[in-house]
Hints:
The complex is a heterotetramer, with two copies of chain A and two copies of chain C. Chain A is of the alpha/beta class. Chain A has helices at 34-59, 73-82, 96-102, 106-113, 138-151, 170-181, 201-204, 229-246, 274-281, 285-295, 301-324, 331-335, 343-351, and strands spanning 4-14, 88-90, 158-163, 186-192, 195-196, 199-200, 220-225, 250-255. In chain A, strands 1-7-8-4-3-2 form a six-stranded parallel β-sheet, with helices on both faces. Chain A has a two-stranded antiparallel sheet with strand order 5-6. In chain A, α1 (34-59) runs antiparallel to α10, α1 packs across α11 and α4 crosses α11. Chain C folds into two domains: 2-184, Rossmann fold (3-Layer(aba) Sandwich); 197-321, Rossmann fold (3-Layer(aba) Sandwich), CATH 3.40.50. Chain C contains twelve helices and 14 strands. In chain C, the strands form four sheets. A five-stranded mixed β-sheet of chain C has the order 9-11-10-13-14, with helices on both faces. Chain C has a four-stranded mixed β-sheet with strand order 5-7-6-12. Chains in contact: A-B, A-C, A-D, B-C, B-D, C-D. At the B-C interface, α12 and α13 of B face α3, β14, α11 and α12 of C. The complex binds thiamine diphosphate (2 copies) and magnesium ion (MG) (2 copies).
Amino acid sequence: MPARTVFTASIESVSILDEHGRFDAQLGADLIPDEDVIKLYEAMTVSRQFDQIAFKLQRSGRMGTYPENRGQEAASLGTAYALNNDDWLVPCYRENTGLFWRGLPMEYILLHWMGDERGNQIPAELCITPLAIPIGTQLLHAAGLAWACKYRKEDRLACTFFGDGATSEGDFHEAMNFAANLDLPVIFLCQNNGWAISVPTKIQCSAPTLAQRGLAYGMESIQCDGNDIFAVVKVVKEAARRAREEHRPTFIEAVTYRLGDHTTADDARRYRDEAEVQLWMQRDPLVRLRNYLTERKLWNSTKEEALQTKAKEQVNAAAKRAEEIAATPTSEIFDAMYAEIPDEVRRQRDTMRTSSLGQEQRGIEASPAPSVEETV
Amino acid sequence: MPARTVFTASIESVSILDEHGRFDAQLGADLIPDEDVIKLYEAMTVSRQFDQIAFKLQRSGRMGTYPENRGQEAASLGTAYALNNDDWLVPCYRENTGLFWRGLPMEYILLHWMGDERGNQIPAELCITPLAIPIGTQLLHAAGLAWACKYRKEDRLACTFFGDGATSEGDFHEAMNFAANLDLPVIFLCQNNGWAISVPTKIQCSAPTLAQRGLAYGMESIQCDGNDIFAVVKVVKEAARRAREEHRPTFIEAVTYRLGDHTTADDARRYRDEAEVQLWMQRDPLVRLRNYLTERKLWNSTKEEALQTKAKEQVNAAAKRAEEIAATPTSEIFDAMYAEIPDEVRRQRDTMRTSSLGQEQRGIEASPAPSVEETV
Amino acid sequence: MANLTLVQAINLALIQEMERDDRIILLGEDIGRNGGVFRVTEGLYKRFGAERVVDTPLAESGIVGTSIGLAMAGLRPVPEIQFEGFLAPAFDQICTHAARMRSRTRGALTVPLTLRVPVGGGIHAPELHSDSPEAFFAHQPGIKVVMPASPYDAKGLLISAIRDPDPVIFFEPKRLYRAFREEVPEDEYTIPLGKARVVTEGDELTIISWGAPVVQCMNAIESSGKSIELIDLRTIDPLDTQTIVNSARKTGRVVIVHEAPKNCGLGAEIASRIMEHCFLYLEAPIQRVTGFDTTMPYYKMELEYLPEAERIGKAIEEVAAY
Amino acid sequence: MANLTLVQAINLALIQEMERDDRIILLGEDIGRNGGVFRVTEGLYKRFGAERVVDTPLAESGIVGTSIGLAMAGLRPVPEIQFEGFLAPAFDQICTHAARMRSRTRGALTVPLTLRVPVGGGIHAPELHSDSPEAFFAHQPGIKVVMPASPYDAKGLLISAIRDPDPVIFFEPKRLYRAFREEVPEDEYTIPLGKARVVTEGDELTIISWGAPVVQCMNAIESSGKSIELIDLRTIDPLDTQTIVNSARKTGRVVIVHEAPKNCGLGAEIASRIMEHCFLYLEAPIQRVTGFDTTMPYYKMELEYLPEAERIGKAIEEVAAY
Ligand SMILES: Cc1ncc(C[n+]2csc(CCOP(=O)(O)OP(=O)(O)O)c2C)c(N)n1
Ligand SMILES: Cc1ncc(C[n+]2csc(CCOP(=O)(O)OP(=O)(O)O)c2C)c(N)n1
Ligand SMILES: [Mg+2]
Ligand SMILES: [Mg+2]
């Protein structure tokens, strides 16, 4: 149908260190100093180790359901690396690597999955919100946090992480729309790992890219190889600049893959081909980075061995801290509810051990008639 | 940032009979037979008259809040004209013209705004769902209705109407996404009338078009002059073909303007410039069509006078029917709830006049001990 | 002192709090240039500017969800939902996040927002503009629920709500917005959350209500000629059990009045608590005069649905005579 | 007859109904190829094909909203919400549309959908995977709420729910999914909605419960050594007031047990109805043994929160001794 064109757009995809080890020297120039690349590789390795030990904790009944991050380390790590330490990180639950980089002690994540709220009692200076269980909901919090940064004229932004599945939720749309229309300094980082539990990305989005979701809002949107930490750092740095200088949000689709099951409660063999997994094994961000370092003579098997040992020690120490944490008194269930505990909640707390309901029939005593404080 | 382009798109805008009376003979060829153009003009006129009389009913206290449709007649009318009579129409509340074209007796709309549910008791053969009060929610029903048509292999589609404001709601996103990914025969017709009560469209969408919202889903999306009934018919016909033949949805942004207040409870002078209104008066779809017909000698002042008289009569007759409808018994509040009225609701119904609560303390009589129907 | 409507009292409270504390941001649909569809925020856009009085996109989950983010960052957002019927799309953010963030993080993050919402029937509005959803939010732990029944209370309660370190839903009964005026001090004052108001003292019977029906109760009491104690809850959650129990023990006869449907309404909770704490004092079953267990009807029949004075009067008679 | 778990009983009911009626479509997250995260729909995708067992996008409002459309068109959708915590994003479509469409249109359009939802705590799940939101939906007129406590009931109630001409929320207690097996007839049978089940008869005291705590109640009763009548509601809305009242009049002493928070929970409604209908029969205040008025804690402390047999036992003693 011939007619006037009123809008055109395109989506670019960025790759710097590809799965075959090719490095785009132009795009990658001066992006990450070598000593940092090494640190990033070490961080990935620790995170991979964390997954293994967490998995074992779950399998041996010492922890509840746990979602492995394996294969997706680069996206959150590159992001955390590219941002400032006072930028808000608003994660889902596959961003361990980035959160650890920011400084989150590993036992917090373990405590969370051990069914202990103290895993979410994150020190304020880390600027991290708790792992988000209800999919897609945290994006709005990121928009609000970014809004507060802007309102206070702080040089800060908020970056939120979520999966391909999350882009189907209404809250995704509302958050993107608020951010675009109110000019909020937010980075929306979507880890498109191909699956939402057993549902492939094409059921969430039949369009060729998820990145184009951002076009709906006139938002700068870009795709990158999410298993390529250089590409991630590159696009996040640009997004951060845009947020800081222009108060404009960016949508980033980081294309990656979940090498493990959805969680320890899942069995991915029920719904996906082993061949697909094998394909993505070749694209593993950790192996890719190790090869890169090795080729550049920045890494060798001695260093690797030492690192593996250290990583194991670190994670085991964290697991020990998480497992050995003192139990909290049940009263905390009640005390944690409000700044000041209401009468009825206090009654339930104080009588839960002595009375069937946590409230005594005679818990309220006769008292002088209430004063008429204000009458119309 | 140089990188590989993975997606490109553009949005077109269609106009056939423009605000200056220019007619695109190529696009408009064989689109609407002259005798139908006349009927469509008549329908617009009746609808405009309906607005006037409804407005008066409200102002004289004989009806509640009413949203005028004035200035937006072409979009819903062109759509209803372009579709089959068994295609679902899933309206918001500014589609009177299209609903009347489909055959909805005018008193239904009046009854609705008179606070009478019988205004929604629409005969099944009209395939119209009730006016939607909660913004954006009806889009999902349209997706579901379309899904049912496809499931049953019927040659039918669902077309839903909504405003620019509605495109900010999460349900808009979920409906578009379901339709695109599950291949549902839906037409999403957005009447972008510039305002959502007092909020201008740019706060709902800072992108240059609303039509590009559809790109997020890989959905065919197009803009048209919503005050140009030819353009509307053209794009809806194409969308209907796509729905029927390919089971693919289409998003249409019909650019129009609300010439009146948001509703009779609103005073648009508080938030918008008179100059803007004057500008859009020049683009009035009804005047445009009358000029077109007059220039083509298909219309004259005698016909116009006769039409005005007839329209007034018709609407007044509908108003009389709406006002004179017999009251329903209060029991209907209860009887309408379920296919079969539950005991407690019946008790409330039967005692509401005789007992304070609509339930007698002794409404339940002692009865034989209940039988143990099934024990574990 | 000025003689103010409830709308004006709220407007005044907002102005005074915003001048005092620049962490307060208002956000919602049509609250800016237009001053709100009920004119509650009239003049605030001009006074405080577009950064503090923000017209948002039409998206209730977005309004509450971003408010949660603003609040977690230490601001004091006061979002508005235009009508109570449109709380439903924000239900998830309210119950899943606003109400849970403090307990989830053991206090590391808190959500001091005040969600203003016009509520209730009686103004001939369209569908979903006349509901009474307060019990939904009372059932959700972690969020407070307030509903004033007078201009004086509205101002004092709203200030307390805004200053409260936890999330509060502040319901404003539409039917009372301009129903009457009352002396409201210019000076700021607070009314503590969680404390009911004894509107009239009496010893024959207790009536418990909140929001718009309080006025209906007053009318019913007047024509009953009995000595009736009327309690206006003011705060719905946490409930002021002590004041309720004191009165129920004194009178032994209780009527509860609310607009919401009866089934699982707040009336059930109040009646149950009274029974738990006053079993041996009760002289008659507690009677609930409520909306019916049906959809709130379109406005032609809304007065049949709402607990009007006549229906309350019947309950008074029945309970007194038991 | 086969000895089935609750999961298997539901699976069987779905198969039989789908074979009988091709208007039935299942939709939800991970219900297809994966057979549901609890394997409730195991094998159905293969058996009935991708057109009748549909993996949807991850969007709960979308799942319920499109189901409403499917139902208005005359189909019989059986959507699943993966966990009760994710009903909240669908709350608007449930309460605003599914529950209101029939009354709104005076019967011109109806919404015969059955929304299946795993519910409740006790399985060491993450946050929002252990809640008990049934009272929210009981407070909303226009939608029925069902919760079986046994495989036999699950099959019969689900078939009734699917055939019901109105919307039904069908809650499946996760804790019972595989807790025990029971003889379940191969043949189809229905259990009427709105009818409670008297699990054990007794005359000293009545316990009323539903869902997973029914099993805890049975344990508590066993160790109490008293003659206790246990009522399993099975349908939460509409409530079987008659069965409850009959029992309360007989025993005069009642304990209500549920997992949801106490404040405005269903327990309050049941207690209030009993008081209204059995005032002169009651020998003791009705006791509610419930979740506390706090967030459902993360799983380390969930057993402190849930009404376990010990806490129920205390209530039995207290109420019996009153
Ligand atoms: C609102 C909501 N619905 C459903 C779930 C259950 N659920 C947990 S994870 C998940 C899939 C998420 O997929 P995606 O967003 O792609 O993230 P990924 O797990 O792949 O990292 C689902 C459906 C949930 N947690 N929240
Ligand atoms: C969910 C919801 N939120 C808020 C409202 C109140 N409201 C009624 S109409 C309206 C504006 C709608 O704007 P738009 O979608 O552009 O439609 P228009 O009125 O311009 O035709 C608002 C905010 C509502 N009805 N439903
Ligand atoms: Mg994913
Ligand atoms: Mg509009």
